[in-house]
Structures are given as C-alpha cells and as structure tokens.
Amino acid sequence: MAKITYIDHEGTEREIEAKNGETVMEVAVKNGVPGIDADCGGACACATCHVYVDEAFVDKVGSPEAMEQSMLDFAENVKPNSRLCCQINVSDALDGLKVTTPESQH
Amino acid sequence: MPSDGHLPLKETDTLLVIGGGQAAAQTIASARQWGFGGKIHLIGDEDALPYQRPPLSKAYLKGEMTEDRLYFKPADWYAEQNVELSLGVRAETIDRATQTVRLSNGTTASYDALLLATGSRPRALPTAGATLEGVHELRDLRDVDGLKPVVTSGQNMVIVGAGYIGLEAAAVARQLGANVTVLEMAPRVLARVTSPVMSEFYTKLHEDHGVKILTDTRLERLTGTDGTIRSAELSDGTRIEADIVLVGIGVLPNQELAEAAGLDCEGGILVDEDARTSDERIFAAGDCTIRPLVHYGRMGRLESVHNAIEQGKLVAAALVGRERPKLDVPWFWSDQYEVKLQIAGLSNDYDDYIVRGEPDSGSFAVFYFRAGRLIAVDAVNAAPEFIVTKKLIISGQTLAPALLQDTSVSMKELAALAAA
Ligand SMILES: Cc1cc2nc3c(=O)[nH]c(=O)nc-3n(C[C@H](O)[C@H](O)[C@H](O)COP(=O)(O)OP(=O)(O)OC[C@H]3O[C@@H](n4cnc5c(N)ncnc54)[C@H](O)[C@@H]3O)c2cc1C
Ligand code: FES
User: Fold this and answer.
1) Max alpha carbon distance in chain B (Å)?
2) Would residue A106 count as lying in a domain?
3) Beta bridge pairs of residue B343
4) How far apart are CA B136 and CA B138, in angstroms?
5) B52 and A41 in contact by Cβ < 8 A?
6) A16 vs B: CB within 8 A
C-alpha cells in the first residue's frame, strides 16, 4: 500500500490509497484523476500518462527503460523528473509519492 | 459545433449507450468529465464491466494480468457517476419514431441521444469443423477465459490467419510452451495491413521463436473425434495435429441494429466528423463505424483503440456542446515477444516506401509515401520515428524519402527539416 498524491497543473491535490502491483497510471485512471488519459492502457505506446515525479522520489521511482525514455524524449514539456506513470509500479517504498501532471495534458 | 435543436443535452435528458466497450466507456467518461448531468444508461451484452481488449491477446492471455485490471473503471465509479448499467443485456431493435430501444430482458429504454458503440465481431471460419470443441476465437474476455487454461506447454495449437491478433496470440502461446503453427492464405503474414519488409521481419521473428508459419496455405477442413478438434487438414492434403485452433481471420462491423433502424450503413455505420449517423439524435463510435479520415480525404473503417477513444470524445463533445476535439492521426500498436510495433497513419494505398535502420538490428522503421508525401510509418522498437511521423502528418508536413533513410541524422533533427 502507498498513499499517492496527484497534483494538477493548477496545484489541486488528490491523495489516493494505492495497492501494490497496480501502476501509478491505473490508480489515477480508476479514480478519475484528470490529466492522465492513458489511451494505450499502459502499453508504453501513447505518452498520455506523462507526469513529473516529486524530486524526493526520483531515485526511489528509478529511471525509465529504453522504450519509455525514447517516448519521453518526444513528449511535450519534458523535464529531468518526467516519467510515463504507466511504467511505475506501486510498492510500499513509494508511500507518500507526489506526481504532477503537465499542463498540456489538461 | 453542434447546431441541432436538441443539443447540448439538458439535465433532464437521457443518453442511452449501446455496447459496453472502449468507445462506450470513453463517451461516458468524457460526457461526465465535461459536465453532462443528465441520465446515462449503458446497455452491454457482455456480463463484464467495460474493459480493454488489447491485453486479451497479450498480458492477460499470458496470465500476467488479473481481470479487474482490464476494467476501465471499477463498479463504484459507475455508481458514483450515476451511470445505470444493464450488463448481459442486448439491444434488439431501435424505434426512432418513439426514441426507444427494445432490450433482450423484455424492457424498453428511451433516449434523447443514442450512441451505438457495438464494435465488431470475428469473421466466422467458413470451413467444415468450425464448431468443434477446441476451436476458439479471440474477441472478448470469455473467449480468453476459454483459451487460457488450454494454451499450455506441449499443446499443439493451430492459428488460422496471420493478422496482428493471430500473431500476438502465437507469440504468447509460444512463450507458454505450446507448439504453434500459423496458417495464412496470402503469400505473406500481415499481407492485408503492411509491406513485405514488415512481413519478412515478423516471419523471421516468429520462426526464430519456434513458430511454424505456412503461407500460401488454404485450410480445407478441421476434423475431430467425439466433437473435439484433432487436426487441421490443408488443401494439399497435409494434416496437422491440433489440440487447439484459434481463428483470427478479421472482423465484421456490428451494424445490423443500425441497418434495421434505417440508418445509412456501408460496410459500417456511416458517421460524420462529429460521429453522428444519418439520424441527428443517434451517434456511432468505434469499430462499427465508417468515418471521415480527415488527414486522408476519404472515408474508412478503423479497428483501433485510438479510433474508439477519439470518436468517443467527439460524441461527448457534441452532446455537451463543447468544441470538437483535435483529431489525431490514426495510430495503433502491437506487442509480440520483446518487439513493440507502433504504427502512425494509414499505409494501405502507398506507392513508395523506404526503410530506416536495419531490420536485423531489431529496431527500424518503414516509412510509406503516396505521390511523394509521407502518409504512414511502421516503427519497430523505434518510438522517435513513430512520434515524429504522427506529428508531421497532423501538421500536414512531409519529409523526403532520402532524408528519412539517413540514420546519421536523428529524428529530432529531421523533424526540423520537415516541409509543408
Ligand atoms: C484481442 C484484441 C487485441 C487488440 N489489440 C489492440 C492493440 O494492441 N491496439 C489497438 O489500438 N487496438 C487493439 N484492438 C482493437 C481494439 O480493442 C478495438 O478497436 C476496440 O475495442 C473497439 O472499441 P469499440 O467500443 O468500438 O468496440 P468493443 O470494444 O468491441 O465493444 C463493443 C461492445 O458492444 C457489445 N455489443 C454489440 N452489439 C450489442 C447489442 N446489440 N447490445 C448490447 N451490446 C452489444 C459487444 O459485445 C461489445 O462488448 C484489439 C482487439 C482485440 C479483440
Ligand atoms: S498509458 Fe500509454 S504510455 Fe502510459
């Protein structure tokens, strides 16, 4: 279990209790978090689940694999802490994670 | 922007949705997100909550994903959003004069706006033995629930049809240890949907994993004992042992309901740029439609998640009176083994193509042109090629074949050289 906070581009926060094994994207979609469309359902094929990971969690979340990285290279408004959140699995270690959705996804 | 008198829908209006798949789920989610507060009633003939199909031939078939992870939304969401669900119920006839739909449970549902999101169904195998026990299709959750327990190590599996779904299932079955033979009538795999370079790549990929691929091969009949499949007989007399047969020879649009109601259909339910049918109160979205393909200046039917989502949003926007969402270029993906294919654009009428990169390296892209313009890409483990092409087509730009062939120039640099 992990509490995850989704912050939209205007700063509105939504805290959600997430189960281990789900992805950060699935938790968002099932709870109707706006700004994470996740069109491909987590296949790392669409880049509509782009988020910025809170600096304190960047190391815990880990770095993207090659496919995700090359999708990110072409996403809009990418930053060093950008991730596709369908590629982040929820675990106890991520309790307290905060992610922000980019303005372009709203 | 809709100008019809009955739109945007009012708080007292009812949106009735037929078919609980990708397009239906999207329309409902977007309509609520964009503020529609009236009644929404969903009629779906499957007994499951609306779910995603792509994993059915991928992670879910492989046993790497539980059923609840396929659902777009959990059951609570529908209750919270005040969406009435009639699952396991079929819509049987539409009466446009009274704006009602007769349902298989004997009741009648009425609408102010109606969405037909009935999807498509597998083309039936026109061969003797097609109804034997052990002959499967792969369209819905229950199909996979029947298939999953039998696709196991050492089983002999024959897949009829080498399209994306058949090949994805072949990859999973191989990874689970089954002996897989793929039969294809055409001279190459994926013949209907892509170029010979791609067919060659996928043939080799599957053969390297131990799948037997027989092209130019006609299935004569399926034979069995006691009603259970035993073998597949080819037109040249060859017999292949089969414990499981999977039929994947394409799909047909579910347009009969619309047709019977007198809506214009032509190999799919005809819709306009707002996904509206020939009746202004009735919309249609997803696999069941023939729609304008604005980047290509023609009508066509698409079978993809992108299309279902996009049309789902078009319907919701029209219903609430929101500006029409920007249209994307048709796109699709397929996962087989460790290979991710991403397709942007429609290549079917290409007159030229070039290959960027080496297929043997496992990462390359095939760019398609028509009259000198870039119209599509098949990108194999090549996300930059996919994304750049998608953006170029949307913005009406093109790149010369010779430029695209030069791998010493990155896709980022190439994108900057694109011309209108
Ligand atoms: C195995 C598989 C793998 C796929 N992989 C990919 C992929 O990797 N990428 C991609 O982009 N696309 C993929 N697709 C295609 C994609 O899933 C479809 O294009 C998409 O689901 C279409 O959505 P839809 O809403 O039009 O139809 P569907 O999702 O098929 O939903 C239609 C629903 O309507 C119901 N229905 C029909 N008639 C009635 C009636 N009269 N009354 C009540 N209910 C009715 C049907 O039973 C069904 O539940 C795949 C499809 C399959 C089957
Ligand atoms: S959901 Fe499509 S890339 Fe994450």
Assistant:
1) 66
2) no
3) B332, B378
4) 7
5) yes
6) no
Q: Is A80 on the interface with B (CB under 8 A)?
A: no
pTM for this model (two decimals)? 0.96
Q: Write down the number of H helices and E strands in chain A.
A: 3, 5
Name B144's Cβ contacts closer than 8 Å, sequence gap at least 6.
B56, B60, B61, B138
> Which residue's structure tokens are 């429609």?
B346
Full domain range(s) for residue A90? 2-100
Give the pocket of ligand 1 (CB within 6 Å): B 18-24, 43-46, 53-54, 56-57, 90-91, 117-119, 138-139, 165, 254, 257, 286-288, 303-306, 308, 332-334
Check: CB of residue B216 under 8 Å from CB of residue B187: yes
For A73-86, what is the mean pLDDT? Answer: 93
Tell me the domains of chain B and their CATH numbers: 14-121+252-320 (3.50.50.60), 124-249 (3.50.50.60), 338-419 (3.30.390.30)
What is the number of other CB atoms lying within 10 angstroms of the CB of residue B33? 14
B255: number of CA atoms within 13 Å, CB side?
A: 21
Tell me whether residue A8 is in a domain: yes
The answer to whether position A9 is within a domain reads: yes
- Give me B116's structure tokens: 């037909």
* Residue identifier of the C-alpha nearest atom 19 of ligand 1: B304
Q: Helices B305-320 and B22-33, interaxial angle, to 10°?
A: 40
Q: What is the pLDDT of residues B149-188, one digit of tens each?
A: 999 999 999 999 999 999 999 999 999 999 999 999 999 9
Dist. CA A37 → ligand 2 center (Å): 8
Complex ipTM value: 0.94
Between CA B417 and CA B216 the distance in angstroms is 43
B313-323 residue pLDDT tens:
999 999 999 99
Torsion angle defined by CA atoms of residues B85, B86, B88 and B93, in that order, rounded to the nearest 10 degrees: -130
Confidence grade of residue B4 (pLDDT, cut at 50, 70, 90): low
Using CB atoms, which residue from B305, B384, B388 is nearest to A39? B305
Residue having the nearest C-alpha atom to atom 33 of ligand 1: B19
* Between B2 and B379, the higher pLDDT residue: B379
CATH number assigned to the domain comprising residue A62: 3.10.20.30
Report the C-alpha gap between B161 and B383 in whole angstroms: 28
- φ, ψ of residue B377 to 5 degrees: the values are -140, 140
Any CB–CB contact under 8 A between A22 and chain B? yes
Give the model's confidence band at B5: pLDDT under 50 very low, under 70 low, under 90 confident, else very high. Answer: confident
Which residue's structure tokens are 């039969």?
A: B183
